[in-house]
Amino acid sequence: MSQPYRESELERAVLNPLRQTTMQFYLVLGVLGLVFLWGAASLIRQWLLGLGVTGLGRPVYWGIYLSNFVFFIGISHAGTLISAILRVTQAEWRRPITRVSEAITFFALVLGGLQIWIDMGRPERVLYPLIWGRYQSPFLWDFTCIGIYLLSSTLYLYLPMIPDLARMRDHMTDAPRWRRWLYQAMSLNWHGSHEQNRRLEKGIGIMAILIIPIAVSVHTVVSWVFGMTMQPMWHSTILGPYFVVGAIFSGIAMLFIFMTLIRKAWHLEKWIGAKQYNYLGLLLLVMSAFWGYFTLAEYLTTGYGSLVHEAHVIQAKLAGEYAPWFWAMVTCNLIFPFAILLWRRGRTPTGTFIAALCVAIGMWIERFTIVAPSLTRPSLGFERAIYAPTLTEVAITLGSVALFSLLFLLFFKIFPVVSVWEVEEGQVIEAVRRKAEELAYQTG
Amino acid sequence: MGHWLMDTAGIGSIIVLAVGFSILVAYVYMLRWIQAAPPDPVLVEAEAGDEEAFAAQVGGDKA
Fold it and tell me: Are B20 and A144 in contact (CB < 8 Å)?
């Protein structure tokens, strides 16, 4: 007779929240749902009344929605890029956090794409680039890269989920019927044979290598949407790498935020611990330094050259009406991370969470200070303009953030938040390594 | 030809869709390849009723 299946401690921690729903879950769901509905209602109002309800117009034709687009596409690098790099370099401490980072990528890409649709003003305009688009336009390069990235990220999120889905198919027999059907369908007839494991590992390995250049191409092409125009401070060769560095920087910050919230809500303190916070904290610090270097290089070169149109924009950013935004960005992206993360005692869950929150806010401001100021002082013959986002734009932005969090929350109500099989595999590798060390020590 | 490809309205979206579709097909093939992996020989033989072979390989109680 076979023994009844006994779940491990990790399985209980990860699978129990899928079985039971707490009051706090409904509360968070309700708050996020209300904010999302506010955003959705504002979007419908914008569709009915036109883009006149926003602060957009001529010459400031891009504003908060484009900032959101660049921000969401940026944080999508959390994800896949970090998870892929850590997988390729075989960093063992990555195992409990890869699923979260891969999910951030997927939902951030969906929300990023949605911002362009919102920015177009009317829903049917989404078809225009398809009908009228010419491939000489960087917008279509963007469509190509983001489309490939979305497909690849979906697969990269799905592949490591297959063994866990099979586990749920076999052991979560008390789940509702639709969920059992879902696990059955998505587990792809997984039986865990030697050959199937080998093929899965090979598939994950291929995707991990493929996704790194794809992710870099995505944010480079996003920067070219700006960089290929002749607007002051957009037409810069450094914009591509600057965007990529910013994307990885904000991606790590977002990973920290979600990782810490999930660790607390799912009680995963035993698996997501000091090692992850220390190493990722150091990575965030290094990216902060890189971001500071690129910012200095960009502003010093432009400021020293002081071409007429660029001088106006840089003046507006450093000492004009955008100065509060600019200096808030520098404080959030450089001063706070360094003040908190430079010391080992700062790289705690609370310390890193605060630093990450600062970076997430700072990086959104960075996107805004790239998009808006250049258009208020365009190089073509327009008068100077002022751009101030309206309540409609703010509501849609907050609604988008709520939708992002909502999708994330619902996804992890159905699927396990930690890659159980990978963590277990890591535990075996660690045990073997310790045993080998013990033996080596004993035999001299 | 190159100029026509780059500068004709509508061709751009065909390029985007063609690239996206080829990649989608490649990914679906990868999933099917993983799905089609054979089970371990021990299980295959046990399922086929070759109980002696199964006992010989796992070296234990067939039950």
Answer: yes
